[in-house]
Design brief:
Layout (H helix, E strand, L loop, with lengths): L1 E6 L9 H7 L3 E6 L14 E4 L15 H15 L3 E4 L1 H9 L3 E17 L1 H5 L9 E14 L5 E6 L2 E8 L3 E4 L9 H6 L2 H11 L3 H9 L3 H20 L1
Parallel strand pairs: 1-2, 1-3, 3-4, 4-9
Antiparallel strand pairs: 5-6, 5-7, 7-8, 8-9
Helix pairs in contact: 2-3
Length: 238
């Protein structure tokens, strides 16, 4: 099995999934779009993952590679009909590529917070074996405001309705972060756009507090990541 991973900033890689993919014997290839790396021929891959980043889906003037990325996502999901999994920006790009819409939220959603699986989410194979109330990392100020046609709502939070969705039978978007490990929050906090958003919302010293909030939950985060990957690989194999 071979997974293509599209990245938008070096620190937003697959995180804990790197270790878990290796354990599963899955080969994955990362493409750093912000560094000018081209998207390879899609036909050689079994699954497409799209990670997060500090840019927004509409930042095409500053990030022109967003245009071919959206085209590739659309072709992957609609024409090739192969498994897709997007995290945060990757979730929003799935919506934007399929004629949905994204918009700034009334309030950013940053912290160790809860997401609740809908009834559809609790039945969906991607979330099999995961508790309906998911403790997770949130770090975003943009949301999917209008999902693509036919999207199924799988998870919500009080500040963001479309926390997870399925489009068709093969494409999933997840707004919250399942991939985090111990080093994730410090690495992301060093990104000016992320650190500034965190301090504006929670005040000076917020990065240390966020890491402390996350600390008790790292075993839970790892279990959920392992289960979600197991479920996704089952979908790819099917």
């Amino acid at each position: 099995m071979k997974v293509l991973v599209l990245q938008h900033i070096p620190c937003e890689h697959p995180g804990i999934f790197r270790e878990l993919l290796a354990e599963s014997g899955v080969v994955w290839q990362a493409v750093e779009l912000d560094a000018g790396e081209p998207i390879p021929q899609l036909e050689g891959f079994d699954a497409l993952w799209v990670m997060g980043g500090p840019m927004d889906v509409w930042d095409e003037a500053d990030c022109p590679w967003l245009i071919p990325e959206k085209t590739a996502i659309r072709r992957w999901v609609k024409e090739l009909q192969r498994p897709y999994l997007g995290f945060c920006l990757g979730h929003q790009l799935l919506a934007a590529a399929l004629d949905g819409q994204c918009a700034m939220q009334t309030s950013p959603e940053i912290g160790i917070l809860d997401v609740h699986l809908t009834e559809a989410g609790q039945r969906d194979p991607l979330f099999a074996g995961i508790e309906p109330d998911i403790r997770c990392l949130q770090w975003h100020s943009v949301e999917v405001s209008q999902p693509p046609a036919g999207a199924v709502l799988l998870a919500s939070s009080p500040l963001c309705r479309w926390q997870a969705m399925r489009v068709g039978s093969n494409a999933y978007g997840v707004q919250f972060h399942v991939e985090l490990q111990n080093s994730t929050i410090p690495e992301w906090g060093a990104v000016p756009a992320y650190g500034e958003a965190l301090d504006q919302l929670q005040g000076p010293g917020s990065l240390g507090r966020l890491q402390a909030d996350a600390e008790p939950y790292f075993p839970l985060f790892a279990r959920n990541a392992r289960q979600l990957l197991h479920n996704f690989l089952g979908l790819v194999a099917a």
